Every structure is written in structure tokens, then in C-alpha cells.
Inverse folding.
């Protein structure tokens, strides 16, 4: 097989989820957006049955895909609906939508889907201003919209002063919201918030990166999560050295070369620095190998991210999406 292969340990994902849930002490809404950070959303969601109380995705399409795959737990779509089609699909697939503006509230009223109110406590990504939470809740009730929850997001969970300010804003908004919808589920913490302390965990938590074995900056080593993914590439060619090149660069050493069927077209950085020279769909390496064998090319996503000045989040998505998946555990 020519395809790059990712081996995913569902057992590790389950173990990570249990660790995070125990640390939080409240129900867990597992974030499986962007195909579960590249790990495979349907497979991860099925693996977390009985552990996660629900799931969070980015778009209506992602939520619909999980329903088609047989996921029956609550699914929260984090991006607000943009048009009537989004709103009708939220209802048709029994997804929970996000209300973040008067426009999305009108769409919820027209289509009749359940929703959570997003509150902007400082990230400025989605959400109504905290001071408007009560007003929007009252307007929702007048329009016949059922707000079953409210949430926000910590933009710098490792900075105590920042996260405390956000928590205070969110708590005040939650009080106003619950004056109208007393049973609304209030949630603020993702992985970093869970590790910051139980005061941030509220009614539920939404871990993402921690499920897959990595912790946000500032929380390294605080929980023994284990990485779930390893990436392998097939050896597609071997040869004796001819001339001075290795891919599009000058060869520095080696009398023999082998080619891995992996390149920057598979999401790896061209300035890869991992024992080979990357072309779009091939990596030329010095040394011997056997055609058809699979070589481990990436299992330390933290190190690879640091080498390229980015985060595990980006590297997981770049390199895992589009790979063939093999699951164990």
C-alpha cells in the first residue's frame, strides 16, 4: 500500500478520557472536531461510549457524519449556523447548535433546534457579551427557543489572572442565564481549564488535546496522558547513489538511498530535519531498506511541533488527516 499509515490506540484515548474526567469530577464532552484532531471522529466517539456524556464538533457536517456513523450521545456544534440550511440540518440530525448573536438566535427560532448560548469572555471568537446573556436568554424564551446550556472558552488558561477574570465574567452571565433557564448546563473548561482547578470545571468540561495524549502549554506533565497516534510510511524505492543529489538538494553523505512514500503533500514540513529530504510526495533518505516495509516516521508530535515553531494541535491535523487509519485497543 502506498498510503501513509497512522496507527491509533483507542485504548490510550479511553484511558486519557478517564483521567481527565476523574480530574474534573464532572461529565465530559469530548471534542472530536476536525476528525478528532485527525484521529478519526467516528472511531474515537464509538470508543468513548460510556465515558463521554457527549461530543463537540466544529460544524453541522461533522455532527451529521457522527449521527450517520451511529453516535447517539448529545453532539454540540461549536460554530453558529450561518443560514437556514445549517439550521434545518441541526434539527434534522438532532444536533445541539450554538447561539452567538441575534442572527443565530433567529435561525434557532425558525428551525426549532436545541442550542447552547456562547458567551464571549475574552477570546473574541464566538459569543454574546457577558452583560447580554440574560437579555438573550429572555429573548430566546420569548421566541420559543430552548437554551439547554451556556459556554465560553479560556483563551490563556495557564495565566491565572486572565482565567480568573474570565471565570468571574462567566459566572455572572450564568446567574442571569439560569434565572431564565435554571437547568442550563454551564461549561467553560477545556483541557487547560481542567488542569487549572475544579473551580473552572462547573457542570461539564470539554477536553480536546488531552484526549489524544498532549497537554497545553503551561500544563506539561500535570497528568499522565499518553499519545495515541504513530505515523508510518512505506519504503517505495531503494538505489545505489548516482551523482550528487538527494531529492532536490545536494546529498551530504551516503552511498545508498531509499525513498519513503511521504512528503509535504502529506502535511509534513518541507524543512523536515528528520533524516531525509522531502519532496511533495517522497522523502529521500541515506541508508538501506527493503521495498514495501513500513518505517515509523513520527510518534513525538511535541518535539516535531517545537522543531517547527508550532503546536501539537497543528501538527496532528497536518499529518494525520488523510492518512489510512489502523486502530487497536
Amino acid at each position: 500500500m502506498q498510503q501513509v499509515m497512522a496507527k491509533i490506540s483507542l485504548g490510550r484515548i479511553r484511558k486519557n478520557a478517564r483521567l481527565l474526567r476523574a480530574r474534573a469530577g464532572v461529565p465530559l464532552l469530548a471534542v472530536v472536531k476536525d476528525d478528532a484532531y485527525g484521529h478519526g471522529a467516528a472511531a474515537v466517539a464509538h470508543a468513548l461510549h460510556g465515558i463521554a456524556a457527549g461530543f463537540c464538533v466544529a460544524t453541522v457536517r461533522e455532527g451529521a457524519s457522527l449521527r450517520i456513523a451511529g453516535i447517539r450521545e448529545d453532539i454540540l456544534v461549536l460554530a453558529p449556523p450561518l443560514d437556514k440550511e445549517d439550521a434545518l440540518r441541526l434539527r434534522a440530525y438532532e444536533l445541539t447548535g450554538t447561539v452567538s448573536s441575534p442572527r443565530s438566535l433567529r435561525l434557532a427560532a425558525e428551525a426549532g433546534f436545541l442550542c447552547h448560548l456562547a458567551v464571549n469572555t475574552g477570546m473574541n471568537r464566538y459569543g454574546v457579551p457577558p452583560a447580554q446573556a440574560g437579555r438573550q436568554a429572555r429573548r430566546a424564551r420569548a421566541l420559543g427557543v430552548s437554551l439547554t446550556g451556556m459556554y465560553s472558552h479560556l483563551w490563556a488558561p495557564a495565566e491565572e489572572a486572565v482565567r480568573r477574570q474570565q471565570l468571574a465574567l462567566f459566572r455572572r452571565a450564568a446567574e442571569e442565564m439560569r434565572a431564565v433557564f435554571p437547568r442550563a448546563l454551564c461549561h467553560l473548561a477545556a483541557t487547560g481549564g481542567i488542569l487549572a482547578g475544579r473551580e473552572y470545571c462547573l457542570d461539564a468540561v470539554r477536553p480536546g488535546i488531552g484526549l489524544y495524549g498532549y497537554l497545553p502549554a503551561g500544563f506539561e506533565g500535570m497528568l499522565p496522558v499518553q499519545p495515541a497516534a504513530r505515523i508510518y510510511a512505506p519504503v517505495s524505492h531503494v538505489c545505489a547513489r548516482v551523482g550528487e543529489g538527494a531529492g532536490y538538494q545536494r546529498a551530504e553523505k551516503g552511498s545508498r538511498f531509499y525513498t519513503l512514500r511521504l512528503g509535504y503533500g502529506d502535511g509534513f514540513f518541507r524543512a523536515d530535519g528528520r533524516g531525509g529530504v522531502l519532496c511533495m510526495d517522497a522523502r529521500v533518505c541515506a541508508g538501506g531498506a527493503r521495498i514495501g516495509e513500513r518505517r515509523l516516521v513520527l510518534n513525538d508530535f511535541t518535539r516535531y511541533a517545537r522543531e517547527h515553531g508550532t503546536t501539537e494541535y497543528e501538527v496532528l491535523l497536518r499529518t494525520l488527516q488523510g492518512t489510512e487509519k489502523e486502530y487497536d485497543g
User: Anything to note?
Assistant: The two ends are 23 Å apart (CA to CA).
